[in-house]
């Protein structure tokens, strides 16, 4: 690439090499767009948000780069997995079961992986220098934690797109499901696209500052007035242009003091101003892509292209710091948008139920709430702002700052619990209807930011992703769900199977052992002769089917040889 510095070096870390690649991709994209301002950052409606094969979304930097990676290579399904993740599809305890008549899932020959970056923690004992897993460290007592040094570091993982594997041939049903999930639907209102959550946000003044639509020719965010002003929707060539402009100015508005504290007083046209424009451009492009829209380069931002390219070519680290700000800004925007969308969907359902005469159950006031850890901050992290708010007793400010650490990912099933208080010394400092912050005065003081979910949301997550990596609290909910489903099955039919030998075995779900038990019935109930662990990654019917197949293979239940039995009677 002309003018691009050669960063290749054997001494570079995997993180530096990944940043070199990211910078090169961004340079290529910006240079392409600079030749045609009407070219969008991402092709219209081409891709949904990138996720791993388990359905977990990638955030900020990784999301942007994976989207660009998909566009460059023509991948139509933005789902990725590590080499180990692909191998797990072939294991008996994997989410997708492998059997003798199923081919193995594998990476296609010659395919190259792509880097994603995650923050991990190394825990080393101060005396023995023994390393332990971060999960194990979190379960230690307060005194035991003091014996360890904890070092955060960015770790690079290599992933493959599903198109780089033989998944389509080896697991056609899973492939079809992924294709269906990636389909995008756009609502049109005449010749203009409409996105109701943003329309409602503007109408009801639900953003962190007013968004005013006026018949004029400029779009801007005023720091002094703390307000966004954009032309009316009818002045734009299409709905996507309107919403893309709104997203751009919303990204700017997240940076003021008291929010993300990103924007500093600076002269128009300066280096800092150019960087803020890039944050707004990328933030707008990512939010637009998340909701199935395209976003072209804002004309006012074109003047900063040269500055962006210079910074990227001189220092690939520029993309890391910039995208960290993009991640926090887009997280604020998408949280609000999706909250409004959720409330709109709930209102529509209630209206539909009322029209059909369906009795709508009122939410239970003491409905069970679950807490999912989204950030764990300790002495090795910069917690000075949180400490300052805590020392002053300003818990509202502390909660607002803590929310910045949420990256927009879904339920972290491994660290989701029925109570925010789990360890000795935990103190629930503050919570609202969505978030909670727990403080523990150990190892210099730790903060855990937790996102709250209803039991129904947990149940929906279990239905979609199973419980392979879930906490014990989530697994308890899964057991309740099977219990309820089995009760419905009993009402519809006698829970029994007939085997090739002519024997009939009855079965029941054993919640205590989390198993399907098979046997004969008597006055005392079921006399169990066979028991199979219940697989919550599969349906009840599938669990029964798998157990049935295993029983069919048992010698005691094989069909008798008819000719041989006649011969014995002679």
TrEMBL record:
Residues 334-361 form a coiled coil. The keyword Coiled coil applies. It comes from the Bacteria. InterPro entries: ArdC_N, MPTase-PolyVal. GO terms for molecular function: single-stranded DNA binding. Transmembrane segments: none annotated. This is DNA primase. It comes from Xylanibacter rarus. The lineage of its organism: Bacteria, Pseudomonadati, Bacteroidota, Bacteroidia, Bacteroidales.
């Amino acid at each position: 690439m002309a003018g691009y510095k050669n960063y290749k070096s054997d001494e570079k870390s995997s993180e530096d090499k990944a940043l070199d690649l990211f910078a090169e991709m961004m340079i290529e994209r910006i240079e392409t767009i600079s030749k045609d301002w009407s070219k969008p950052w991402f092709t219209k409606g081409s891709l949904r948000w990138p996720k791993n094969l388990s359905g977990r979304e990638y955030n900020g930097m990784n999301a942007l780069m994976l989207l660009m990676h998909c566009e460059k290579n023509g991948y139509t399904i933005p789902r990725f997995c590590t080499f180990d993740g692909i191998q797990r599809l072939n294991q008996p305890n994997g989410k997708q079961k492998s059997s003798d008549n199923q081919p193995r899932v594998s990476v296609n020959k010659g395919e190259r992986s792509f880097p994603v970056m995650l923050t991990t923690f190394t825990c080393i004992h101060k005396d023995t220098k023994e390393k332990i897993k971060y999960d194990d460290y979190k379960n230690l007592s307060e005194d035991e934690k003091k014996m360890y040094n904890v070092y955060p570091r960015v770790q690079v993982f290599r992933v493959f797109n599903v198109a780089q594997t033989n998944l389509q041939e080896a697991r056609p049903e899973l492939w079809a499901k992924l294709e269906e999930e990636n389909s995008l639907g756009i609502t049109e209102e005449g010749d203009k696209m409409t996105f109701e959550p943003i329309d409602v946000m503007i109408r009801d003044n639900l953003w962190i500052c007013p968004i005013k639509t006026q018949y004029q020719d400029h779009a801007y965010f005023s720091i002094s007035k703390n307000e966004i002003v954009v032309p009316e929707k009818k002045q734009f060539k299409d709905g996507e242009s309107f919403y893309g402009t709104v997203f751009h100015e919303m990204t700017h508005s997240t940076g003021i003091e008291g929010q993300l504290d990103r924007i500093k007083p600076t002269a128009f046209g300066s280096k800092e101003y150019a960087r803020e424009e890039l944050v707004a451009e990328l933030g707008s492009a990512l939010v637009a892509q998340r909701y199935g829209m395209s976003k072209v380069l804002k004309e006012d931002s074109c003047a900063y292209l040269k500055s962006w390219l210079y910074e990227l070519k001189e220092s690939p680290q520029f993309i890391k710091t910039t995208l960290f700000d993009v991640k926090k800004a887009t997280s604020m925007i998408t949280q609000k948008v999706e909250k409004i969308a959720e409330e709109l969907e709930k209102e529509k359902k209630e209206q539909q139920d009322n029209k059909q005469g369906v009795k709508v159950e009122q939410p239970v006031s003491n409905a069970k709430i679950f807490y999912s850890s989204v950030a764990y901050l300790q002495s090795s992290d910069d917690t000075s702002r949180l400490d300052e708010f805590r020392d002053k007793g300003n818990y509202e400010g502390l909660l607002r700052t803590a929310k910045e650490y949420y990256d927009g990912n879904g339920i972290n099933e491994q660290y989701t619990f029925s109570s925010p208080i789990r360890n000795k010394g935990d103190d629930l400092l503050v919570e609202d209807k969505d978030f909670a912050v727990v403080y523990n005065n150990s190892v210099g003081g730790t903060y855990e930011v937790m996102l709250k979910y209803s039991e129904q949301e947990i149940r929906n997550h279990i239905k979609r992703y199973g419980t392979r990596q879930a906490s014990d609290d989530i697994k308890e909910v899964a057991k309740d769900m099977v219990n309820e489903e089995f009760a419905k099955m009993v009402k519809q039919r006698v829970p029994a199977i007939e085997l090739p030998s002519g024997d009939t075995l009855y079965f029941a779900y054993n919640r205590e052992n989390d198993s399907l038990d098979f046997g004969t019935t008597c006055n005392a109930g079921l006399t169990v002769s066979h028991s199979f662990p219940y697989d919550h990654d599969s349906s009840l019917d599938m669990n029964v089917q798998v157990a049935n197949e295993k029983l069919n293979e048992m010698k005691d239940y094989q069909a008798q040889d008819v000719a041989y039995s006649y011969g014995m009677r002679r």
